[in-house]
Amino acid sequence: MTLDTGKITDAALDLLREEGLDGVTFRKLTARLNVKAPAIYWRFAGKQELLEAMAEAILATRLAGLGPHDGREPWQDWFTDLLHRLRQAMLDYPDGARVVTGARPQGTPTLGLLAEHALSAAVTAGLDLADAAARVFTALHFTYGRAIEEQDSTGASIMDDTARAEFAAQFPTVARVLRHSTEKSVTARDAFDAGLQLILR
């Protein structure tokens, strides 16, 4: 088997799907690929480089061919769509958000392009650079944090009647918000979108 970066990355993503980020180790990767460690280190100098290749592959599932804003719609709408796609790409893999947020833009070109094109679109629309940067990076960090919270907090809202009553007594306003969200069928995507609108508009 010719062992290239793509095969190694695919095997690492398989481990990520099966065991989460903590299960992605060079030891397990060499066993899966039936190779010795130097075969992997020949392609990746260390785990950071491997994680960045994984992040780029994760992002490519939803953001392949990312290009600049073409001006046919408001830049906020265009950027909002990209951020929804970014969130979904991270949620497609267990711990996908942890993989992507730990990546450096120079090792994960799609991350760099996302910020570059968004900043350029905001400046072209008339924002000064500081305002554009505040909106773009706040929206990006909100997206990362939201995805991490969604992946790390699964099951946190499941309570029996006794626990729910105790929670409502201790945090009545929070409980009202949760009841309202349930009654109105507010999804995680809806809540994410509402946050983006606050930041970008």
How would the blueprint of this fold be written?
Layout: H1 5-19, H2 26-33, H3 37-41, H4 47-63, H5 75-91, H6 96-101, H7 109-124, H8 129-152, H9 161-170, H10 172-183, H11 188-200
Provide an overview of this structure.
Helix content is 71%, strand content 0%. It is mostly helical. Helix 5 runs antiparallel to helix 7 and helix 8 (129-152) runs antiparallel to helix 11 (188-200). The chain is flat, with a radius of gyration of 20 Å. The mean pLDDT is 93.
Overall number of strands: 0
* CA-based shape: flat
List SSEs in N-to-C order. HHHHHHHHHHH
Percentage of residues in helical conformation = over 70%
Summary?
By secondary structure, the chain is mainly α. Helix content is 71%, strand content 0%. It is flat, with a radius of gyration of 20 Å.
Please tag this protein with its features.
201 residues, mainly alpha
